[in-house]
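Structure tokens please, single chain.
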Amino acid sequence: MSVDFLLSIWPWLLLLVLIALNLAVSARVILIKRDSHTAVNWLAIFWLAPFLGVALYWLLGINRIQRRARRLRRKFRRSRTPTGATAPLSDMASAILATGAEHLTPLAQLGETITGNPLCPGNSVAPLMNGDQAYPVMMQAIDEATQSVSLAMYIFENDQAGNLFVAALGRAVARGVEVRVLVDDIGAHFTWRSIVGPLRQANVPVACFLRTLIPRYFAYANLRSHRKILVVDGRLGFTGGMNIGDGNCLHLRPAHPIRDLMFRMEGLIVSQMQKVFVEDWSFTTGETLHGPRWFPTLVPHGPVLARGVSSGPDEDLEKLRFVLLGALNSAQQRVVIVTPYFLPDVGLISALNITALRGVQIDIVLPKFGDLRLVQWASTAQLWQVLEHGCRVWIDPDPFPHTKLMIVDGVWTLLGSGNWDARSLRLNFEFNIECYDRTLARELEAAVDATITRSERVTLTKLNQRPFPVKLRDGVARLFMPYL
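Here you go.
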């Protein structure tokens, strides 16, 4: 074949390669992309921008977060009821829900089906406000441990509060207690000197979840473990939204104070908390924790029905989002949402609006000044979408509220680490607990109502009165919402 011939046909060869490449990538988009508008947009880019469109799709269109998470954790998947298979509620759970909360039975069934975790009766759940209340109780539990201590934290700072925990964990190790500490690799470096060094000096077994080269303080990293779990002797558990650091101790008058909640739990739900920790520890270190030290026989300890909800970009993708949608669909009277980061997707916004249009009162409590400016701007830019259909939005003044709560009809409470943003719903690993109990829900609802009384209500008029440069800034920030 002569060189002249090749030179004469190379444009046609290039065209054939382009057509074959576009057809292959187009087929992938058609088969994989869930949203038809997104698929159409990508198809237009492929065919209108030859080669460049394929390159852009390779860089931006492939969900590497989900694929990497599933690949990394494939060997550690829990045995659970497959999604789509119906798991019947226990007779006790059905009986409790039948006493005035019958309309929440479908929500309980939804949780059973998508998580595979049973709804556990017989639990006590006590809220602890800020590190001022929570830290002493948590450290006392560690000091009284006789068998095991499991601690998973997103942020564990090397400061006064963090060093008190290190000392308590070190004392437990010295007594012969089996201790394991798992800190997210980003969260372990929020202070200049990592907490890992002091923990190892105290002979505390510690590991970092998914080591990364991403710089410290980078708040938009993916595939992070955002969970906060402490389990003592397999019987006593703590979870919520609170990290470990001086910022949560208001009595220390920190430069950037944080208000938050942790929850003390006893009962059958603690085994589900421990199970999540054990899986994450096994995934990170290869060590499998089992036996009565970690999983003792538990007995009922209170009136609360509870279930753990794990979520993340692996096999747990969409679990938390489905629970939020189910809760909104089940609500008949009132929904209370407290979150520091409010960036719901289109589906959640529609569900909020439909719930409000059904006559359900929806109160959303957000911080006045967030710790992530880009998130704050993007959140403000889309508030009109929920305000125009009747949701009420309240701005909680300082100190920065980091609490994550959802309460439905004064019965159902969702608490834990998850926020209303893409990071919690799609990109990071979270742990939440749904609770069915009027006393707990009404106690938390009363606390939120007290906050609302001193908060500023956001209206469409106030949003529209923002200066044009501010509106434009917020609108540009909203374009990055899927990654915030």
